[in-house]
Amino acid sequence: MKVNIHDSWKNQLNEEFEKSYFKDLISFVKNEYQTEICYPKGSDIFAAFEYCHFNDLKVVILGQDPYHGVNQANGLCFSVKDDVKMPPSLINIFKEIEQDVGQPFPSTGNLERWANQGVLLLNATLTVRAHEAGSHQKKGWEQFTDQVISKISKNRENVIFLLWGGFAKKKVKLIDTKKHHILTSGHPSPLSANRGYWFGNKHFSKTNAILKEMKQKPISW
């Protein structure tokens, strides 16, 4: 399985690709894709790194697992392919954007447009079996994506990390809080959002305010 990843990331992550855990992980993933239905499609597994280049990175949003429904996952966390029904968490993200920055509710849940502006949409686990949430956890993906976060923390400055929910918040230990900006809130899932832990966090306007302070172009959400 070829690792489709932009050259700017290869410079940061080449040593990870040579480690035994990563080789074992790729072997596992290859076998799964040959014997089971898995998502996203093979060419989209590393899509987050193709759309958002290391040197253009402004914002990191962390997810946990890819969507495991038919044709939902496209390699970017929280994102779905064009013409795919939006999952509840994504709907709540767009509702918050609508309330926060006045951006109209979009016609598509494909977040490639964010990634192209410097938003890394990173799941902790990059693959999953169809209809089996968490089925590829603890196989090595988390070790790899933790290294991604650590490399960003070490080798970039003033990146804005949006940590939504308990799982994402635990990743703060990997981030140098003196060099970077961290915004936390509840998860946009209905369970969390309906309890008042998501709506009103204003993460999208706050992110753009930070970018403007740093004389960077804000994100068109």
Mean pLDDT: 96
Note the run of SSEs as H and E: HHEHEHHEEHEHEHH
> How does the overall form come out from the CA principal axes?
globular
**Main sheet properties:** 4 strands, parallel
CATH class: Alpha Beta
* SS element count, helices: 9
| Gyration radius, rounded | 17 Å
Range of strand content: 5-15%
Which homologous superfamily in CATH is the superfamily?
Answer: Uracil-DNA glycosylase-like domain
The separation of the N and C termini measures 33 Å
Q: Which regions contain 5 or more consecutive residues with pLDDT less than 50? A: none
Given helix and strand content, the structural type is alpha/beta
Number of strands: 6
The percentage helix is 25-40%
The CATH topology comes to: Uracil-DNA Glycosylase, subunit E
Pfam families: UDG
Active site: 65 (proton acceptor)
Domain Uracil-DNA glycosylase-like: 50-211
EC number: 3.2.2.27
Chain-wise SSE layout:
Elements: H1 7-17, H2 20-35, E1 38-39, H3 47-51, E2 59-63, H4 88-101, H5 112-115, E3 119-123, E4 128-129, H6 141-155, E5 160-164, H7 165-169, E6 181-185, H8 190-193, H9 203-213
Parallel strand pairs: 2-3, 2-5, 5-6
Antiparallel strand pairs: 1-4
What does this structure look like?
With 221 residues, the protein is α/β, with parallel strands linked by helices. The protein has one domain (7-214): Uracil-DNA glycosylase-like domain (Uracil-DNA Glycosylase, subunit E), CATH 3.40.470. The chain has nine helices and six strands, in the order H-H-E-H-E-H-H-E-E-H-E-H-E-H-H. It has helices at 7-17, 20-35, 47-51, 88-101, 112-115, 141-155, 165-169, 190-193, 203-213; strands at residues 38-39, 59-63, 119-123, 128-129, 160-164, 181-185. Strands 3-2-5-6 form a four-stranded parallel sheet. Strands 1-4 form a two-stranded antiparallel sheet. Helix 7 (165-169) links the parallel strand 5 and strand 6. It is globular, with a radius of gyration of 17 Å.
